[in-house]
């Protein structure tokens, strides 16, 4: 028993040492092979394959769009002008004019003051005569006032003229509705419409013998006559040598019929008329210069 225990005590360390040596040998051999394998792999040439990265899709799309998109000049060529409604014939323009007028004023009840027969020709003939100081009543574009002119009788007498009358301002109020109708139109729209009607207006103007002449010059001359009309500072005195009234002042009586009509409008109406026509004249001048 003692020999056996002694043998075990002596054998056990030897066996352990032997096992450790074997394990170390195995580990060393595996480590050696692993390092050798790593060196072999490292010695192999590494081929770097460079991938071609495709260009961004957005850029490709943008290039495609730029190729397809026309230049600015092409866009202008492609764009078609907006066609305005064609004008009617001059002889057939009355109904068209009547409908158009309804859309341009907020005082539609006053349109009854406008004569709806041969409207463009009436406007052209009356304006042409007015610019020359004459009144073509038979071609007036508006109806005549229902009330007649009246004066205020005074107690003054002169040997030359007899009884003296004074101007009745109430008599001028008969023209107020005509001024209100004119004021109800937007001046910008009215001038634009005039430019639209210009071919028909020029046609009617040429029928009067003004072939090739510009009616706008005649219209501006008529407006200038109104703007240049001086408003008397003193009350106007009138006389009645016959059925018709006359102005007591010879200078006023010598005025053209167109100027006398302006005086009959009265001070307030004439001032409003001057203001409206001045604005219209300036707008016509600007639009005519741009053409």
Q: How would you explain this protein's 3D organization?
A:
The termini are far apart. By secondary structure, the protein is α+β, with helices and mostly antiparallel strands. The protein has twelve helices and four strands; from the N terminus they run αααααββααααββααα. The protein is 57% helix and 7% strand. It folds into two domains: 77 residues, no CATH class; 201 residues, no CATH class. The N terminus is likely disordered. The radius of gyration is 52 Å and the shape is elongated.
Question: What is the strand and helix layout of this fold?
Answer:
Layout: H1 2-43, H2 57-68, H3 72-78, H4 94-102, H5 119-131, E1 151-158, E2 162-167, H6 169-172, H7 176-183, H8 187-206, H9 215-228, E3 237-239, E4 246-247, H10 250-253, H11 257-264, H12 267-290
Antiparallel strand pairs: 1-2, 2-3, 3-4
Helix pairs in contact: 5-8, 5-9, 7-12, 8-12, 9-12
Descriptive key words:
alpha+beta, four-stranded antiparallel sheet, 57% helix, disordered N terminus
Structure summarized in a few sentences:
The chain has 291 residues and is of the alpha+beta class. 57% of the residues lie in helices and 7% in strands.
Query: So how many helices?
Result: 12
Gap between N and C termini: 139 Å
Radius of gyration: 52 Å
Q: Tell me, rounded to a whole number, the average pLDDT.
A: 79
Number of domains as seen in the coordinates: 2
Oligomer status: single chain
């Amino acid at each position: 028993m003692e020999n056996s225990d002694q043998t075990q005590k002596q054998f056990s360390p030897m066996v352990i040492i032997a096992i450790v040596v074997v394990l170390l040998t195995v580990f060393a051999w595996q480590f050696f092979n692993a390092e050798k394998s790593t060196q072999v792999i490292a010695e192999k040439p590494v081929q770097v394959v460079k991938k071609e990265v495709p260009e961004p899709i957005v850029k490709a799309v943008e290039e495609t769009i730029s190729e397809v998109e026309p230049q600015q000049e092409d866009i202008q060529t492609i764009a078609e002008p907006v066609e305005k409604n064609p004008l009617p014939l001059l002889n057939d323009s009355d109904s068209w004019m009547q409908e158009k007028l309804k859309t341009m004023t907020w005082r539609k009840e006053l349109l009854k003051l406008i004569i709806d027969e041969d409207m463009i020709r009436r406007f052209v003939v009356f304006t042409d005569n007015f610019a020359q100081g004459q009144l073509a009543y038979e071609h007036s574009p508006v109806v005549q006032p229902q009330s007649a002119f009246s004066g205020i009788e005074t107690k003054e007498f002169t040997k030359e003229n007899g009884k003296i009358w004074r101007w009745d301002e109430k008599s001028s109020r008969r023209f107020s509705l005509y001024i209100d109708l004119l004021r109800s139109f937007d001046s910008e729209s009215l001038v634009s419409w005039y430019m639209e009607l210009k071919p028909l207006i020029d046609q009617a103007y040429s029928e009067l013998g003004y072939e090739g002449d510009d009616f706008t010059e005649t219209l501006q001359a008529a407006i200038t006559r109104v703007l240049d009309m001086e408003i008397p500072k003193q009350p106007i005195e009138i006389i009645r040598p016959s059925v018709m009234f006359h102005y007591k002042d010879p200078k006023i009586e010598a005025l053209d019929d167109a100027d006398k009509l302006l005086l009959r409008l009265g001070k307030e109406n004439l001032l409003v008329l001057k203001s409206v026509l001045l604005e219209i004249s300036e707008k016509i001048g600007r639009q005519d210069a741009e053409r």
